[in-house]
Write a structure and sequence with these properties.
Blueprint: H1 12-16, E1 25-30, H2 34-37, H3 50-63, H4 73-77, E2 80-86, H5 88-91, E3 109-123, E4 131-147, E5 150-160, H6 178-185, H7 189-192, H8 194-198, H9 204-221, H10 224-231, H11 240-253, H12 263-315, H13 326-422, H14 436-454, H15 459-486
Parallel strand pairs: 1-5
Antiparallel strand pairs: 2-3, 3-4, 4-5
Length: 487
């Protein structure tokens, strides 16, 4: 379709009848995707037969001098490239002649062709998991020829993959994507002027690069929202250390929440919930980081492609840019190279922004990993404390039971011993009034045993008292034993 006329939809047969050398002025064609229409795949509604892709590819290669590499899978899988050639029309059989003074003669054709690929990746703001690739491939053919003492200049721009297949259905007849079309309309009007573009084989790149620059800028800034959302997520505001301080303060205040639930249990539950959220965000951040790395890669490739464009423009013959003399040619090329320097510098700044997003996201990933590790350590410590507390409670329960049995033994063991001792056949107590002897012996024994149990420091002293009290009864026991033996 023509830039200066209303867009025209051409059929495959009509486009294959187009002859580049018969065109004059500026012509822009929006063609089907390289992948879906030109041999690497098919898209329903664009080409009816698989053979149409080969027919269109052969016509573009022959008539518009597009290299074979442009149609190969390696070219499609590339993250960016720029290729150019000069005097391509002469090599196809058109004669070229100049006199010794360098003046143009009838039949002379100066020509230049180029092909380029720009690849970019963008994500949707609402969901960082959804993304789309944009392939922007272009091919240009510029030539100047003299016919009937009249000089004519032609610039043909072929735009492939300017539609967003990930977001919108294919446009009919190879019409451009609305986003790309709007960007092109907002470009510098002078850059698209036929007199400005057609006279220089590289001036068309200024408008293309301005449009591509805007697309790269929008794609990189699409990462800002999810990155900021991760950095300012309020759900992760409390760290394990803050929760530990709150737990300690609650324990000092009583340890129970307003609803009667023990605060330690609620805090551990909240920590587990926080940990699960961070683990999920950890996976999402890795996915987002993968997209940012891809975006940085495509930006680096775009910068190299733009530098190659600038180098080619500097090496091109200045005489082909203007028929008004060398001064006008140098002025035109100065405008082209200066603009390309600006675009390359701006792309490098966008690349710096992409690298900043990557570094910030890596910091968030490290923070999430360290916080999850701290939460795990805190939960493990709390579980160990709970286990230790449970063991101490169990130990205390056994100690209380032991102390209770020990007290019962102190109370019942001495009376039982003395009762059994005086109940032996060695003694005969026919008068019950002598029972006071049992109390005299039993009560000191119980008191001594109780004191011995409560105060281990007085063990030796109490034992000495016990021995001194028991010593007279020892002689009494021996005397009774001797009397019974004599009987």
């Amino acid at each position: 379709m023509h830039r200066d006329e209303d867009p025209q939809i051409l059929s495959l047969e009509e486009f294959c009848e187009v002859r580049a050398v018969n065109l004059s002025g500026l012509h822009i064609y929006h063609l089907p995707s390289v992948k879906y229409a030109l041999g690497l795949g098919r898209d329903a509604g664009l080409l009816d037969r698989a053979s149409e892709g080969k027919e269109l590819r052969d016509h573009l290669t022959k008539e518009f001098h597009i290299p074979r590499f442009f149609w190969e899978k390696a070219g499609w899988d590339a993250n960016g490239f720029f290729w150019d050639n000069i005097d391509v029309i002469e090599k196809t059989g058109v004669t070229k002649s100049t006199d010794l003074k360098g003046e143009s003669e009838r039949g002379k054709i100066e020509s230049h062709c180029s092909s380029s690929l720009f690849l970019l990746k963008e994500i949707y703001h609402k969901n960082a998991g959804k993304y789309s690739w944009r392939y922007l491939t272009f091919s240009t053919l510029w030539f100047r020829q003299n016919s009937d003492d009249k000089m004519s200049e032609t610039m043909i721009l072929l735009c492939f993959d300017t539609r967003d297949y990930e977001k919108r259905p294919p446009q009919p007849g190879g019409s451009p994507d609305p986003t790309f079309q709007e960007c092109a309309r907002s470009s510098d009007a002078k850059s698209w002027n036929q007199e400005g573009v057609a006279r220089c084989p590289h001036r068309i790149y200024l408008s293309l690069l301005e449009t591509i620059l805007q697309l790269y800028n929008d794609a990189i800034w699409s990462f800002r929202t999810p990155v900021r959302r991760i950095e300012k997520n309020e759900d992760f505001a409390q760290t394990a250390d803050q929760q530990a301080h709150q737990l300690l303060n609650r324990h000092l205040d009583g340890g129970d929440d307003l609803d009667g639930t023990h605060y330690e249990d609620k805090t551990l539950k909240n920590i587990r919930i926080d940990r699960e959220k961070r683990v999920k965000s950890y996976k999402l951040m890795h996915e987002l980081l993968r997209h940012i790395i891809h975006a940085s890669e495509t930006l680096s490739a775009a910068i190299r492609t733009m530098v190659d464009m600038k180098r080619t423009a500097e090496l091109c013959s200045a005489a082909c840019c203007s028929v008004d003399g060398e001064a006008q040619a140098q002025k035109s090329y100065s405008t082209v190279t200066r603009s390309m320097n600006f675009y390359a510098s701006f792309l490098e700044n966008i690349k710096a922004r992409s690298d900043a997003f990557r570094i910030r996201l890596e910091n968030e990933i490290k923070l999430a990993f360290n916080v999850v590790d701290a939460l795990d350590s805190y939960v493990s410590g709390q579980m160990m404390n709970n286990t230790q507390k449970l063991l101490e409670d169990t130990k205390n329960d056994g100690r209380e039971l032991t102390q209770f049995v020990s007290k019962l033994s102190i109370i019942f063991l001495p009376p039982t011993f003395t009762a059994g001792f005086f109940g032996m056949n060695f003694f005969e107590f026919k008068n019950w009034r002598l029972v006071w002897i049992w109390f005299v012996i039993t009560v000191p024994l119980v008191m001594a045993a109780s004191a011995l149990q409560k105060k281990k420091a007085t063990k030796d002293f109490l034992l000495a008292i016990f021995r001194s009290l028991f010593w007279p009864f020892r002689w009494l026991f021996l005397y009774v034993w001797d009397l019974n033996k004599r009987k």
